[in-house]
Write a structure and sequence with these properties.
Radius of gyration: 16 Å
Distance between the termini: 34 Å
Strand order of the largest sheet: 1-2-3-6-7
Helix content: 25-40%
Strand content: 25-35%
Number of strands: 7
Largest sheet: 5 strands, antiparallel
Structural class: alpha+beta
Number of helices: 5
Bound molecules: nickel (II) ion
Length: 171
């Protein structure tokens, strides 16, 4: 039986988004089914990344989509660890599938080195920059219960206040 069938996108303020996700102990069929289901939801929602807590699973699994510039293919990152962050902070507009209609500026280092395990249990390490580096940091934040609204500049926090209140009131 596929325990991941029928998962759905979870929106703020669902408490699962604020929980610290737990590591995957062993990569097995269940992990692969979860990754497949996440890939389906990410494609449906036209996202470029997704974290397991966003489908209601408090596990350290993220997906990144193929980057629009063709520089990277879609990938599953299990138990990702940021080994290094580098460069002067770059400010860029970010949104999140769990925070519909909310966008704002987030400052992040432009380069990161991440170590993870893939869906076949194989360890890998990658140096990312540009959009992928930003996407990885955003998704790994989700695993620690951190959302973009926590990282917005004070101005963007204010600018999104009404939409955020609406979302928190249940749309
Ligand atoms: Ni997000």
């Amino acid at each position: 039986m596929n325990a991941s069938a029928g998962l759905r996108l979870v929106l703020h303020p669902d408490p699962v988004l604020r929980r610290k996700a737990v590591p995957v102990i062993s990569v097995d069929e269940g992990t692969r089914e979860l990754a497949l289901e996440m890939a389906r939801i990410m494609a449906e929602e036209e996202g470029i990344g997704l974290a397991a807590p966003q489908v209601g699973r408090s596990l350290r699994v993220i997906l990144t989509a193929a980057m629009p510039d063709g520089s990277q293919m879609a990938r599953t990152w299990i138990n990702p660890i940021v080994e290094r962050l580098e460069g002067n902070l770059v400010e860029h507009d970010e949104g999140c599938l769990s925070l519909p209609e909310i966008r704002g500026m987030v400052r992040r280092p432009p380069l990161c080195v991440v170590r993870a395990t893939d869906e076949h249990g194989q360890e890998f390490r990658m140096e990312a920059q540009g959009l992928l580096a930003r996407c990885l940091q955003h998704e790994i934040d989700h695993l620690d219960g951190v959302l973009i609204i926590d990282r917005f500049t004070p101005l963007d926090r204010l600018a999104n206040r009404r939409k955020l209140k609406q979302l928190e009131a249940g749309g």
